[in-house]
Amino acid sequence: MLENVSKALKGALLTCVAVGVAGSGFAQSLEEVKTQRGLTDKDILAAAKTYTPSGMKDEYYVFSSGGQAGQVIVYGVPSMRILKYIGVFTPEPWQGWGFDKHSKDILAQGKIRGKEITWGDTHHPGLSETKGDYDGQYLFINDKANPRVAVIDLKTFETTQIVVNPIFKSEHGSTIVTPNTEYVIEVAQYAAPFEDKYVPLEDYNDKYRGGVTYWKFDRKKGKIDIKRSFTVELPPYMQDVTDAGKGPSYGWSFTNTVNSERYQGGFGNGNVPEFSKRLPNEAGMSAKDTDYMTIVNWKAAEKLFQQGKYKKINDHAVISMDDMVKANALFLVPEPKSPHGNDVSPDGTHIIVAGKLDTHASVYSWTKMKNMIDSKDFASTDPYGLPILDLKRSLARQVNLGLGPLHTQYGKGDSVYTSLYVESSIVHWNYKTGKVLEKMPINYNVGHLVTAEGDTVDPDGKYLISLNKLAIDRFLGVGPLHPQNHQLIDIKKGQPMQLLYDMPLPLGEPHYAQMIKADKLKPIVRYKKKSFKHRVRPGREKVVRNGNNVTIYSTAIRSHYSPEVIKVKVGDKITWHMSNVERAQDQTHGFTVDGLNIHGSLEPGETSTFEFVVDKEGVYPFYCTEFCSALHLEMTGYLLVEP
Amino acid sequence: MKSIFTKVVLTIGLASLVMSGSAMAYTKADYEKKVKTNEFYVGVVAAVINGLCPKLVVDASVCNPKDPVGTAVGIQNVMLHGEEDIDDVDEDLIEQSVHNIDAAFQFYDAVEQFKGFLGQKADNAKYAAAGDWKNATIGEEQAWQYIVKTASRSAFAADMLGDTKTSKMIRDLAADY
Asked: pTM for the complete prediction?
């Protein structure tokens, strides 16, 4: 019978081949492929610039927010091959993130006022820096909806800490770092009372607040030091994107604001009649021609914190606006309304602001602003007493770019690239001369941009990725919810911008990204077994009972667990330590006990711990969920639960 | 050409035909058949160890073609630098003593499987001496599992070293048998 089946398969295969030859034909040359697929020379060039043959590695890593997935997306450039989704604020089953004790404990750090949050809105990843250059050691990522910041160790590509902002109710323009990663900056978005209590909207101006939190990063420990962190109180404007000064502007940070009108809409028949006749927020919050860039001297704020000049709110240090103003450490300068981009130049001398509702990019001169600050030469003050610098005298120039400038990234030399959201274009211009060099259409509605090392003191140029909000007609349909589209563009100096590749991203809105030279990262391939407290050595496996607490010490190696049969009783509290005793690269074992919502990914050298109570008698198979070896199927065992 | 994986798949297929390993009756002939298989495989693995050794370690004096077991353990010892636990050894130090650290770690794990093979074989001999053909036969099957994994990890090491000859020797294992 087997022989007959084999003959039938061979026949089917030959038929397929024959049909293939007669139909599309086997293309033998590049020209034939071009003709068959309708490709142009330009397409072939783009393919040659991105195609990465088996074994060849990419030049850059991109770390992109994973949007509503609460994760981070990692991919390579120029291939645009996705390398990993890093579990951060939400469970990620493949990695066992959120299914073993260690990751559950880290996720539990992210509880908001005691409540478990099972989603996240990751927005702005920030790579750690040394002297203003990416150093490849850590990545930080924020959660806009549930104001939290996470630390990811780039040796393991795993989240190691989640810190909740105890006073913000939302945030956005995080997690930009200061040039030596002294601080990770987190900025409020929607103003709210710092305290966790009800305050009517009528008290908005007096009791709602914005702020900038400076999370102290302890590089030695690889952790944020919560006790050495503080927030600078700000007016109830909506803070947005932030950048840290460098070079001559080192020690300062710059933050956009929206809604300096402090407008509150209401629009529509709800159950608050006094607000229902008000026009929508979108109108009232953009009524003025300008909002404010907030300028904070974080070095001075640090000094105030060290001097104890703060009050504690929710056990977190808050430095008041008054104290900041008295210390000459907090200023405003008008900027085009409803801005989003706010980007310090590599040499720290200029800041480019892109106002979404203005056709211009505004290039601020730090030298001019600093002179006004030093000579206390202010145009006015805002309702909270914050000194306001004169707009015109702060500007180096304004450049008319097009419809909806949103975000600027730096290229090589004086080249900059600004996204035009409304116009769906990228514009290449010179920020020192104001000359517009080139404009390129993209598909569709570009938000942020990322250039190679574009946020550092030494951008590489070379590649730009347009982080498009819409894909519309670019890919095969997958229902009404389309993937997002990252478009790779070649920006090598001396040539026109060339679109190279469209990459669909089907995880969430990948809001912002950073691109780092691959050789700066030194990821490990195996864990140090000794670093795990509950490591189990081969031959020392055991099951220990203490009352109704049962601790299982077991190991995994191709292709068996040890022990393979374990007997417990209903109601026993199980603590199961599992060590992967392999060392070879990529020899990962999975682990699950059926029906108990347990899953682990045990990478070489790793020990994971699983805690659970079995509340029903029965037979529970457990098995390796990775195809680890030919006898992967046999890598199994039974947890027997007696009544 | 049959590959080593063909053999594994066939083994799985045959295993699925029986109800349960522990419910089967085994004979001396079953045991001896598996012993013969393992003798063949261990012969190839010995050749693999001897082939890989000089390409793996900087100090080739540890390579002794007459003693493949000693050679395999010797390669681990080179990597251990006097420590009992490979975790205690700085990877930079390991890197200095081997030609390719990734290949070396593949081989380290291959030797761990090989040790499993040797230990299992010793147990099997005791079972056989006691006429316990069931445990002796299943034990030889487990020994075969260890030796196959030794071979597959060694194949990875060979590939990483660009040692096509050894790699082919491992991949031709089933066909040759």
From this structure: 0.91
